[in-house]
Amino acid sequence: MTKFDSFEAYQADKSKWENELAQLRTILLSFDLKECIKWNTPVYTYQGQNLIGLGAFKSYVGIWFFQGALLSDPAQILFNAQEDKTKAMRSWRFNSLSEIDEDLIRTYIAECMQHQEEGKKVEVKKSKVLLIPEMMQKAFQENPKLEEAFKLITPYKQKEYCIHLAGAKREATQLKRLEKIIPLILAGKGFNDKYRR
Fold it and tell me: Do 55 and 150 share a domain, yes or no?
């Protein structure tokens, strides 16, 4: 994957959407926003907080609002890409330059900035209940030492294992994943420890 260090590098790679990206950037930079690259895409911050991001994909170019759920959305154009997961972020997609309504976008940006100035944020309630996949529960019954080792690792690491196992749709894939994680759990390691410093 190409790593971008500037808006221009990102725009050059997304040449299909060059004009749309340029127009959206011009609108964004007309406000007191700071441009940077985060998550390999252009992001615009205000008062040190991520406010808006830009993205170009196969079939559209879009902007997303990190605290978009707070917006009044008078044009009813914002949507949540992952209803079951995303609580705060909302996006707005454009299929052509002609769809970019500068005045309307300015209204949304101004409201975003106002929420930031007022310190408003979407409150995300994290579930404290850990849902242990059925296959893992069976493994605990068969191997009490595995359950004991699982209880000794941090709740965060426990959650990583559960998400990884539950993310497999097929039973065969779940079994393969379970076989791989059992030695890690018994060793007291987290699923993603190798990526942590």
Answer: no
Distance in angstroms (rounded) separating the CA atoms of residues 117 and 130 = 35
**Residue 93 structure tokens:** 């997609």
By percentage, how much of the chain surpasses pLDDT 90? Answer: 74
Instruction: Judge whether 65 and 54 are in contact, CB under 8 Å.
Output: no
- pLDDT score, position 197: 52
What 3-state class would DSSP assign to 43?
strand
The CATH number that applies at residue 107 is 3.90.1150.200
Contact at 8 Å (CB) between 11 and 21?
Answer: yes
The closest of 39, 10, 7 to 26, measured between CA atoms, is: 7
* Domain span including residue 56: 7-117
pTM: 0.66
Query: What's the structural domain count of the chain?
Result: 2
Closest CA to 186 of 148, 159, 131: 148
pLDDT at 110 over 60: yes
66 within domain boundaries: yes
Residues 101 and 183 placed together within one structural domain of the fold: no
Write the single-letter amino acid at 98: S
Beta carbons of 67 and 90 less than 8 angstroms apart: no
Strand partners, 79: 91
Extract the tokens encoding 22: 């340029």
